[in-house]
Amino acid sequence: MNPSPAPVYLSIDRAMEFIGDVNGVLSLLKTLHQTLGDDLPRIQAMLDKDDMHGANRLLHQLKGFTPVFCVDSLVEEVVRIEHLSKHAASAEIRGAYSHLAPKLEQLRTEVATHLRLHAPA
Question: Cα 100–113–98 angle (5° rounding)?
């Protein structure tokens, strides 16, 4: 059996610095996994309908958790796109999000893998 690849966007070290204990990190990772699963399709649907206010609201929530769980490059991209969603043209926002969405899906996969490997028995 091959070991799971190292996370690209998830930073457990950063989460431990913010949260302080393994159980707290695992608990919040479960919430993060559920939130990503729910919100990523919703963001895309809102962008598809030109609901930039709704997309901004969900992107703002993403912006809140990324500094706790994610590497700097992803944090910076989420912050940039959340800011765009306040003021930019919808086509620009959709284009920027189309580059971010696969990274957020990768993050969701990394969170799921970490939970599977580290969940209490």
Answer: 10
